[in-house]
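Revision sheet: structure tokens.
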Amino acid sequence: VQLQASGGGSVQTGNSLKLSCEVTGRRFSGFVLGWFRQATGKEREFVGSISRSGMTTTYADFVQNRFDISKDNAKNTVYLQMNNLKPGDTAVYFCAAAWAENVLIVSDDYGYWGQGTQVTVSS
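Predicted:
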């Protein structure tokens, strides 16, 4: 299984970015998918997750209704739409996949990881 994340970049406060992560190597619709992030000098933290069915999503408290996770089974891709970005959102963002049914918030529950994509938000 391979995960390829893309879409990172440098934006100013208040702008938006949409990250993508293509999953290959196994039936995409069988995965729970998640996004994590790691800022310089900090531990990796949970951002959000979407269930295998796509019917359930959950987010970290800091998201505050600014981010949205979705997936397209036809494209084997999960997305993270990030709006109203803040400097505190600056980090490397990772997508992750788990062969499971319900949303997962613990990084150890994910068996597959992408390489990360840098998001930088300037004030």
